[in-house]
Design brief:
single chain; two-stranded antiparallel ribbon; alpha+beta; Arc Repressor Mutant, subunit A; 9 strands; 4 helices; five-stranded antiparallel sheet
Length: about 140
């Protein structure tokens, strides 16, 4: 099991303890939303499609309402992080593409320090969505 801890905003996510903290106090988050939050953080700044999320969380031989499961998990993550889907600080919905974690993070994984600036994340998300980071309203130039 990973000994990694990541910090973002007022939160710390301890992978080994499978626990989310806000300003040092535990934040309740059920297993599936916790797994999805870890998946989004681990894949930052990439956008994860619903298909990628389903494959990671449920596999191919599990029969559930995946759409509802993902929607519910994202909603619970946003509630736990006090995030807003209209102006997200942590989990962004990229319409027609999927979801990505957009907050700046720091990691304690084996003394590895990882930081993504908000600008770098924004550029990566826009590029993945096929938008030109220098022209937010238009398509990416070929």
């Amino acid at each position: 099991m990973s000994q990694k801890k990541v910090r973002f905003d007022q939160f710390e996510l301890d992978y080994a303890r499978f626990q989310l903290f806000r300003k040092g106090a535990p934040v309740r988050l059920e297993s599936l939303p916790m797994q999805l939050l870890m998946l989004l953080i681990d894949n930052q700044p990439n956008i994860l499609t619903r298909e990628q999320i389903a494959a990671q969380l449920w596999g191919k031989d599990f029969f559930v309402d995946i759409e509802q499961g993902i929607n519910t998990a994202i909603r619970k993550i946003r509630i736990a992080l006090d995030d807003d889907y209209v102006q997200p600080r942590f989990v962004r919905t990229v319409v027609g593409k999927g979801y990505c974690f957009v907050a700046e993070i720091a990691s304690d994984d084996d003394s590895e320090q990882v930081m993504f600036s908000a600008e770098e994340l924004g550029r990566a998300v826009m590029a993945a969505a096929g938008l030109d980071p220098n022209n937010p309203g238009g398509p990416q130039e070929s």
